[in-house]
Design a protein that fits this description.
This protein has 471 residues and is mainly α. The chain contains 18 helices and six strands. The longest helix has 37 residues. Bound molecules: arginine. The site of arginine has 10 residues, from helix 6.
């Protein structure tokens, strides 16, 4: 920052693109708080795509000349190549990516560059760029969810008949199969894909041509720019077009739900991989050691995927709070939409890839899971069901009898299957030796053949259906 200059020479110190009415440049802190180039350079491809579409429309509508349009398009190619090659020097004085592209274009092609911003504002420009960026992010996340689902389905088939304890309240409840448990996550992640697809459908309208807020007096063709950029249609209201960010909020909502699903799976991987559970092992590829405890093998990637949900949900909260109470139309507050969204998308992409890696990497300890599946009288419901089905007992009474047998087994310090027939008949004389066939965990899971149930036959069927839906 230099001191005052004489009046005639102050104009160059003001912003070269919008500084016509300014006598001097901004304070250092103004420049610092105002600049978004530090993060919005990530929009350069979308920004240049938007400019190409706008330029082609301007020439088609005879708003600019063929010669200017040709120069602009050629110049934009060069600017894009320079940024891609890391050759563009980003300067906070030029605020954001939109002004960087335009000012470099001017250096390359001269005055014709100034015609590109006809019938356009940075307000509709940034709304368009950001929609395009979020749309790309949705497509990338959808691909990653697809990979995760494929991994879950493969592993569910591997473990369709591996018995493990199913929990409620994290207390052993009933035996289930590991394949069934993995496919439960498959259901969640396929609904997540649906949420992103819904969000994509709604966001796919083009704000370009809304200009600053009111539309424009030039004879523009909004259908043309919308379709050139792959949008379904132009947005219907210019005020809404420049001030709406609900597409980003929806994206972050869908991302938050996915992140929550990932964190639940991550939490289970952490639990299962502990010595106390010992249900699964992760290989060297997905664990880390401790610098002090030589025996350790820590599931750090799962822990971090669990934690990243915090960032994603934080981004949603942050943008909700930014948008809350903003009057129409554009306010600079909205520049704060990007960093959080970029960060959430990064965090989600990383978590998805790491979780997919872990699902493919893990090995289940079938023996350990099966023996844990029997701990805690988990076949007590099977016992009650046997009493209902074989002795025509009303379920409530069967529940009571099975409860008494659990109590007896608890007193004797053994499992239900270790009670003698005489023990059983002491509680309910009509019980026969056949009851022992339902007390094993294998039989228990095999019997749960209702649609959506945990029986291995059902799990294989469900995996097949999920695979069909995926392709
Ligand atoms: N960098 C700005 C943003 O991200 C671009 C729009 C600026 N518009 C304006 N009227 N200053 O929101």
């Amino acid at each position: 920052m230099t001191g005052k200059k004489d009046k005639a020479k102050t104009i160059p110190a003001a912003n070269a693109l919008w500084g016509g009415r300014f006598g001097a440049g901004p304070a250092e802190i103004m420049e610092k708080i105002n600049a978004s180039i530090g993060f919005d350079h990530r929009l350069y491809r979308q920004d240049i795509a938007g400019s190409r579409a706008h330029c082609r429309m301007l020439v088609a509508q005879r708003i600019i000349s063929e010669a200017d349009s040709a120069a602009i398009l050629q110049g934009l190619d060069q600017v894009e190549a320079e940024i891609a090659a890391g050759k563009m020097v980003f300067d906070p004085k030029l605020e954001d990516i939109h002004m960087h592209v335009e000012s470099r274009l001017k250096e390359i092609i001269g005055e014709a560059a100034g015609r590109l911003h006809t019938a356009r504002s940075r307000n509709d420009q940034v709304a368009t760029d950001f929609r395009l960026w979020v749309r790309d992010a949705i497509d990338a996340i959808d691909g990653a969810l697809h990979e995760l689902l494929a991994a879950l389905i493969d592993r569910a088939e591997d473990y369709a008949d591996a018995v493990m304890p199913g929990f409620t309240h994290l207390q052993a409840a009933q035996p289930v199969t590991f394949g069934h448990h993995l496919l439960a996550y498959g259901e969640m992640f396929s609904r997540d894909r649906g949420r992103f697809a819904d969000c994509r459908r709604r966001l796919n309208e083009c704000p370009l041509g809304a200009a600053a807020l009111a539309g424009t007096s030039y004879p523009i063709d909004r259908e043309m720019t919308a379709s050139a950029l792959g949008f379904d249609r132009p947005t219907a209201n210019s005020l809404d077009a420049v001030s709406d960010r609900d597409f980003a909020l929806e994206f972050l909502s869908a991302a938050s739900i996915t992140a929550v699903h990932l964190s639940r799976l991550a939490e289970e991987i952490v639990l299962w991989a502990s010595a106390q559970f010992g249900f699964i092992a992760l290989s060297d590829a997905f664990t880390t050691g401790s610098s002090i405890m030589p025996q350790k093998r820590n599931p750090d990637a799962a822990e971090l995927a669990r934690a990243k949900a915090g960032r994603v949900i934080g981004a949603l909260n942050s943008l909700l709070i930014v948008m809350k109470g903003l009057p129409l139309a554009y306010s600079k507050d909205m520049q704060e939409d990007k960093e959080a969204t970029f960060d959430a998308a990064n965090a989600l992409a990383l978590s998805l890839a790491a979780m997919t890696g872990m699902v493919r990497d893990l090995t289940a300890n079938r023996q350990r899971m099966a023996s844990a599946a029997g701990v805690g009288f988990t076949t007590a419901t099977d016992l009650a069901d046997w009493l209902v089905q074989r002795l025509s007992m009303p379920f409530r009474r069967a529940h009571h009898v099975a409860g008494s047998l659990v109590k007896l087994a608890e007193e004797k310090g053994c499992g239900l299957e270790a009670l003698t027939l005489a023990d059983m008949q002491g509680v309910e004389p009509a019980i026969t030796a056949e009851v022992f066939t339902v007390l094993g965990v294998e039989n228990s899971v095999k019997s749960r053949t209702s649609f959506g149930g945990t029986a291995p036959t059902r799990v294989r069927e469900a995996a097949r259906r999920a695979r069909e839906r995926l392709s």
